[in-house]
């Protein structure tokens, strides 16, 4: 039986959770997002954060569903902070792993329990696009960086950016053509000129990516309160397509103090030489 190819365009949603909200609320939020559509496009990828304290049983309740797979990789301290779930009709997992971006730590605020926070660790998910062999793989890097409200945290934020560059080098050594999507809570407000420039300088420009909010900044509302756009995606421009808006806010719910956002998701073609190699391989194997 021939597998139907992934739709030519789809949606990705990021929904930063909150560590102290009930499991049932997070499960209801994920289920609602999976049903979300816009302009005929459906959600095929959801990512989230603040799950380091959630058990495997909790995350199974939140993320397990027919037609969907998921990853929440706990192990070393801090590794379970991020999670992802994807539709198997559109995306086929190549590999999943966690990667520590910095060894530096900081002291949490009392609201978040105090004590030393673990080093920032990213979740890496690489996908092939179902039924579309001439498209690039998509590598999603889910992150939660510290709020840079002290000198120490500012240093850690910048060190995370350096760690992200090292991670990109490793990814491209194995797959030079993959399309990157760095998504999550960067804890820098896109509406603020200085924060926007920092993201460009430390992440977007070195990795040859763009900020998803660029050209699609909502007139009102934010991922944190009425104005702050602290959550976002920095990604390969070709993943977004060319029709605006390519990034927007979703309705809020009680699973978090963050508001989810969506961005369009297209499948960039491989370079011509790589497509020729795949075409030749497919002819030999059929």
Care to describe what's here?
InterPro entries: Endo/exonu/phosph_ase_sf. This is Endonuclease/exonuclease/phosphatase domain-containing protein. The chain has helices at residues 23-34, 56-63, 151-174, 193-207, 237-240, 272-285; strands at 9-14, 37-38, 41-48, 68-71, 83-87, 91-100, 121-129, 138-144, 179-185, 210-211, 231-235, 247-249, 261-266. The radius of gyration is 18 Å and the shape is globular. The protein is built from 6 helices and 13 strands. Strands 1, 2, 3, 4, 5, 12 and 13 form a 7-stranded mixed sheet that branches. The chain has a 6-stranded mixed sheet with strand order 6-7-8-9-11-10. The chain has one domain (9-285): Endonuclease/exonuclease/phosphatase (Deoxyribonuclease I, Chain A), CATH 3.60.10. The mean pLDDT is 92. Strand 2 (37-38) and strand 3 form a beta hairpin.
Largest sheet, if any?
A: 7 strands, mixed
Shape, principal axes of CA atoms = globular
Oligomer: single chain
Strand content: 25-35%
Q: Gyration radius, to the nearest Å?
A: 18 Å
CATH architecture: 4-Layer Sandwich
Query: Based on DSSP secondary structure assignment, what is the total number of beta strands?
Result: 13
- Determine the number of helices (DSSP H or I, runs of at least 4 residues): 6
Query: Percentage of helical residues?
Result: 25-40%
Give the N-terminus to C-terminus distance in angstroms: 14 Å
How many individual domains? 1
């Amino acid at each position: 039986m021939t597998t139907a190819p992934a739709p030519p365009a789809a949606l990705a949603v990021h929904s930063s959770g909150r560590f102290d909200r009930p499991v049932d609320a997070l499960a209801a939020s994920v289920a609602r997002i999976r049903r979300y559509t816009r302009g005929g496009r459906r959600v095929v990828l959801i990512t989230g954060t603040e799950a380091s304290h959630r058990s495997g049983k909790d995350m199974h309740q939140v993320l397990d569903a027919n037609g969907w797979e998921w990853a929440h990789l706990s192990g070393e301290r801090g590794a379970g902070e991020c999670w992802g779930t994807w539709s198997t009709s559109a995306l086929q997992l190549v590999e999943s792993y966690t990667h520590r971006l910095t060894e530096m730590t900081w002291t949490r605020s009392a609201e978040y329990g105090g004590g030393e926070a673990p080093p920032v660790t990213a979740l890496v998910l690489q996908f092939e696009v179902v039924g579309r062999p001439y498209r690039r793989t998509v590598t999603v890097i889910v992150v939660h960086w510290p709020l840079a409200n002290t000198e120490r945290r500012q240093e850690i934020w910048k060190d995370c950016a350096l760690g992200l560059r090292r991670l990109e080098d490793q990814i491209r050594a194995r797959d030079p053509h993959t399309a990157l999507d760095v998504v999550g809570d960067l804890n820098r407000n896109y509406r603020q000129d200085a924060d926007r420039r920092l993201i460009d300088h430390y992440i977007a420009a070195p990795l040859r990516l763009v900020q998803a909010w660029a050209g699609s900044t909502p007139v009102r509302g934010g991922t944190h309160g009425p104005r702050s756009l602290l959550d976002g995606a920095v990604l390969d421009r070709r993943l977004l397509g060319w029709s605006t808006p390519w990034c927007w806010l979703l309705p809020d719910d009680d699973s978090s103090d963050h508001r989810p956002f969506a961005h369009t998701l297209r499948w960039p073609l491989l370079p011509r030489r790589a497509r020729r190699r795949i075409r030749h391989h497919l002819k030999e194997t059929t």
